[in-house]
Amino acid sequence: RTPKTPKPPVTELFLTEHAHVRMLRVLLELFYQPMLREGFFDEQELSNIFPSLEDLVEVHTLFLDSLKKLREESGFIIAEIGDVLLARFEGTEGSWFQKISARFCSRQSFALEQLKAKQRKDTRFNQFIQEAESRPRCRRLQLKDIIPTEMQRLTKYPLLLLSITKCTEAAAERAKVEQAAECCRQILNHVNQEVRDMENLMVGPPQNPPQNPCDPTQCPKSNTDITKRTLVHEGPLTWRVTRDKAVEVQVLLLDDLLVLLQRQEERLVLRCHSRALAPAPDGKQMLSPVIRLRSAMTREVATDHKAFYVIISWENGAQIYELVAQSVSERK
């Protein structure tokens, strides 16, 4: 069998970008939009599972359009591509691309967990996924194979651009492509770090979270020996349990736990707090004073630079802790 002739690097960039846009559109049009339309998830839930997906589709489509235009204007023999690459990966446009890529890629493990849990729990949703994956547009790929494609694409850009530099003779043009390749490497490094940070915060949601964390048989304090853990940080925080209820706590940040201690007379004690669940007036959510970090992630509070959220998420819902430090540096 005659071996295939390798494609010119610019042609390979164009064809692989075209294939990537097609796969992102599959994710958007066969999964994201029908999931919303059929009511499997609401808009907020989907924006957590597939953050910035529509923005990513737009950015990659615009990049592909610019490559198409360059191809047509140059009579399908592209001699200079540096300006188009820099317009995509450098400056404000590059920063925006980095931001939305980091959002999406850092949540891909979370997305896979949420979707897997939903499939186990909801037979109608499981059937929907199987039917969508059987469509010709998926090209025999499952959803779990499609979600990581953005991360895979980011790893290929530096290699593709490096190949282009090797075939570029003009020094000025080669310098532009090299600069674009360096921008791609910086974007990839940033996204990799975001992915690592998120994985450190949330390795996976608990499979069977306690219904009442304050039950002595289930509460983490009943079987947690903090003397065997490493103390990372200690200090005072305010725990905003509800809008009308705030509790002063002494916090121990351990290597795998966050412990919220309350002062009672001369002692520090562990105490659970309850919060009403809307819209059910009689529903109560119990918040444990011991938070396992492998099941948690953190978020800033937009309205208060000293505050942050700790969020524990699983298939049945989420627990949100709002904690306030005495200063911005203490929060960090």
Automatic annotation (TrEMBL):
Q: Name one Pfam family in it.
A: PH_16
Q: Name one GO cellular component term.
A: cytoplasm
Q: Does the keyword Cytoplasm apply?
A: yes
**Xref: Gene3D superfamilies:** Dbl homology (DH) domain, Pleckstrin-homology domain (PH domain)/Phosphotyrosine-binding domain (PTB)
According to its UniProt entry, the protein's GO biological process terms are: G protein-coupled receptor signaling pathway
Q: Where in the cell is it found?
A: Cytoplasm
GO terms (molecular function) for this protein are: G protein-coupled receptor binding; guanyl-nucleotide exchange factor activity
Recorded hits in InterPro entries, A to Z, give: DBL_dom_sf, DH_dom, PH-like_dom_sf, PH_16
- Positions of the DH domain: 5-194
Q: Which UniProt keywords apply?
A: Cytoplasm, Guanine-nucleotide releasing factor, Phosphoprotein
Query: Which PANTHER family does the entry link to?
Result: RHO GUANINE NUCLEOTIDE EXCHANGE FACTOR 1 (PTHR45872:SF4), RHO GUANINE NUCLEOTIDE EXCHANGE FACTOR 2, ISOFORM D (PTHR45872)
User: What is the protein name for this chain?
Assistant: ARHG1 factor
Gene label: Arhgef1
